[in-house]
Amino acid sequence: MKRYTLLILMAFAVMGAKAQQTPEQWFEQANAAYNAGRYDSAIFLYDRVLQDNLESVPLYFNMGNAYYKMREYPMAIYYFEKALKLDPSNDDARTNLAIANMAIVDKIEPVPQSFIVKGWNGLRGMLSGGQWAWLSVAAFGLLLVAVGLFIRSNRMALRKLGFFGGIVMALVFVLSVMFASQLKKAALKEDQAIVITPTVTVRSTPNEASVDLFVLHEGTKVEILDHADGWNKIKIANGSIGWLQAETMLPF
After folding, report:
1. pTM for the full model?
2. How far is CA 59 from CA 9, 27, 31, 43, in A?
3. Integer Cα distance of 24 and 28 in angstroms
4. What is the pLDDT of residues 60-105, one digit of tens each?
């Protein structure tokens, strides 16, 4: 009896030690499991980090890779998209997302963007929200230096440098603040989703008896426009709009 009691106490001690592990330790163990080819264990451990309400680009990126190795492509796409939502400039996540998208059924051609919209989005996606925020701080500091140079310098060349440099830094500051704000808002909103049901029929209204519009398959990305009674109004890349049951998709 004493032996069994001792074994039970030891088991509880081990469980308590595991519960006290930090998210960093869970993450390292998950990486070790991934490198050893134990992808299901890696996903379990990565998810343990998420349960502590923590998120990061490396965490989402690694989860996407683990799901891809297990050929669970919708979930791989979901986590690559979440990584890119935090950091649109992450080329690795963008590349792996493109590879994962090749494995799904739906190949939807997006609506062409205007030159201005494409350029704006491309410029905004050059850095993450945090990087734009730091750039705005640096630009503001240099703006103050330029203003001081313009006001205090007696040399015309330095005054011109301060004037034009100030204009450039003011522009960089304004754009950086705008981009940082937009990316932060985008990261907080769950206005996109990945279809996780193998095959779903998009309806004309939020009702099972409404007209069938088109069919989507798992792994397809949709934009969420509205909600109603367990349904989401969605738009796909080609501009088509309809209603899907909320349980068929995973928002991000």
Report:
1. 0.84
2. 34, 8, 10, 10
3. 6
4. 999 999 999 999 999 999 999 999 999 999 999 999 999 999 999 9
